[in-house]
Amino acid sequence: MELEVYTAFTKAGIPDDVARAAVDSIKKEIDSRYALHSTQLATKSDLAEAKAEIIKWCMGAIFGSAGMTIAIVKLLS
């Protein structure tokens, strides 16, 4: 992308040093915005870990409720 922007600036008649400075400025701005949001983005491994954690808790809840149901039935019979 940097090369395309630089080429567009130079074709528009902007001096070489000014075009390079503008491209560097744009790149720095994009990098800083990415850095702000990168901590909020989830990777595939983050999602896989969360999925495993959810499955673990759901299975625990299912077996726990089944055990409680069996215990209640035994107490009532």
Radius of gyration: 29 Å
Secondary structure class reads mainly alpha
Low-confidence segments, ≥5 residues, pLDDT <50? none
Give me the count of strands.
0
**Whole-number tally of structural domains:** 2
**Helix-strand sequence:** HHH
* N-to-C CA distance: 74 Å
Per DSSP, the total helix count is 3
The proportion of strand residues reads under 5%
Structure characterization notes:
The protein has 77 residues and is mainly α. It has two domains: 1-41; 42-77. 86% of the residues lie in helices and 0% in strands. It has three helices and no strands. The chain has helices at residues 2-11, 16-38, 44-76. The radius of gyration is 29 Å and the shape is rod-shaped. It starts with a helix and ends with a helix.
Topology:
Elements: H1 2-11, H2 16-38, H3 44-76
What are the main properties of this structure?
3 helices, single chain, 86% helix, 2 domains, mainly alpha
Kindly summarize this structure in a few lines.
The protein has 77 residues and is an all-alpha fold. The protein contains 3 helices and no strands.
